[in-house]
Design brief:
The protein has 427 residues and is α/β, with parallel strands linked by helices. It folds into 3 domains: 119 residues, 3-Layer(aba) Sandwich (Rossmann fold); 165 residues, 3-Layer(aba) Sandwich (Rossmann fold), CATH 3.40.50; 124 residues, Orthogonal Bundle (Helicase, Ruva Protein, domain 3). Helix content is 47%, strand content 15%. The protein has a 5-stranded parallel sheet with strand order 2-1-3-6-7, sandwiched between helices. A 5-stranded parallel sheet has the order 9-12-15-8-16. Strands 4-5 form a two-stranded antiparallel ribbon. Helix 1 links the parallel strand 1 and strand 2. The radius of gyration is 26 Å and the shape is globular. InterPro entries: AAA+_ATPase, AAA_lid_NorR, CheY-like_superfamily, Homeodomain-like_sf, HTH_Fis, P-loop_NTPase, Sig_transdc_resp-reg_receiver, Sigma_54_int.
Amino acid sequence: MKTILIIEDDIVFSRSISNWLVKKGMKTDCVTTLANARKAIGQKEFDLILADLRLPDGNSTSLLKWMNEKQYPIPFLIMTNYGQVENAVTAMQLGAVNYLCKPVQPDKLLALITEIFDKESDKPVFYRGESFKAHEMYRLIEMIAGADISVLLRGDSGTGKEHVAAEIHARSHRKNKPYLAIDCGAISDELAASEFFGHQKGAFTGAESDKIGLLRAADGGTLFLDEVGNLSYKTQMLLLRALQEKRCKPVGSTKEYSFDIRLVAATNENLEKAIEEGRFREDLFHRLNEFTLRIPTLAECREDILPLADFFLKLACAKVHKSFHGFDRLAKAALLEYLWPGNIRELKNVIGRTVLICQEQWISVSDLNLEISLPKKETQWTEEEKERALLLQTLEKTGDNRSKAARLLNISRTTLYEKLKKYHIVD
């Protein structure tokens, strides 16, 4: 059950919000001052803080500064009166995840809280790879993190580009400022200006309150544009102009605001080809591509597959309160043999699904349900890789009976054992 600390000096309003959240299955603690909030945070664990901007003993931005100094990484949601949005911007620059204008609408509050908790549970927690490719990638991350330049991450889907973007931010001098991520494929032309620049209340149908756009919300920090190739040409033009001028104007406003952000963008698309085809602006490409970092596929980091599988196994077990001894020998061999077209994301999903269905203490190759077969283009594998796959298929078919496997392969049991040792299928 999630626990929320409500910091609000209006006791009637605080009690009303508290009772409503309790009915939605959450626990709440209520305080009326910043001093009592600091005391509560020091004594108990909270999953979210819901705070009024102005309190009897000061502004809640001072509490955010204190939490940053004391390293309390608790999601912080601001409530503010209409007209105090500029202070909410300051709070977001200090690390608040979002804000709500009063009077607070319960459904909107619940949607925001649900979104915050979903993001917290989905935060990428990664095993740091030990393969040569992974080491080289992290060496480059360390090198570029301190340089205030735009970085373009290139790699296949599922390789962990958002994790790399967060790592770059965490190692930069902007690490104590906001880090915001946006899926560019989810931004429509109609709402692009509002998403990036913000809008004023009443600027268009549905604009029920002021909104701070991504460029201002990320001011001082890092903005991650995931799958930037999905931006429409029109939206690319809007974004480029703002990035060049380092200023933006909210929809419906006459006032311009300056911003200072670091850009990290990611794509699994060939943007040079998109430029040739007229789908992506060359000037925006060069603005984003001050440094290119290629993210390796999981197949290129084979040494990391089993440690990653063990890592994801622990995470999945913790979620569903189960435990296993681990992967049996054939399961490990299958994990190494599979090509992982979906990369780290696919491995995580496979392990999560396996944990749900496996009923034994050791996870077997049948639990993994991986199709280990020769690729359609056989030239993708060497002869040794094909032979290793054939050995695995035969062992799985015979239930790990080596005598039967040797007969099916028309080789002696001794030869079979030698091949199993050669390909590290047995110790």
